[in-house]
Design goal:
Layout (H helix, E strand, L loop, with lengths): L11 E3 L4 E3 L10 E3 H8 L3 H10 L7 E3 L2 E5 H8 L3
Antiparallel strand pairs: 1-2, 3-5, 4-5
């Protein structure tokens, strides 16, 4: 596990530049992540996660919010073995 303190930088996408700023999963404060961020942490493509959601055969299931997929941080931590 990483002993560095969590950054105070905001996580997620910078809407002005549309760039993604990853945050260590141990430091993540949001309850769920969008597909692109979850795919980054799982080292999979976004399409792989979408297929898991469609066929319901992946190691974790997303939450559907108004037709969008949100991946629970607690499940990401469980699958990756992160405390």
């Amino acid at each position: 596990m990483n002993n560095k303190p969590c950054s105070t930088k905001p996580s997620g996408k910078d809407m002005a530049t549309n760039t993604f700023h990853p945050v260590a999963l141990e430091c993540e404060t949001r309850a769920a992540l969008p597909t692109d961020e979850a795919a980054f942490h799982l080292n999979r493509t976004k399409q792989t996660l979408r297929l898991w959601a469609c066929y319901e055969d992946g190691p974790l299931r997303p939450i559907r919010i108004n037709g969008r997929l949100a991946w629970p941080v607690s499940e990401l931590r469980r699958v990756l073995g992160v405390a």
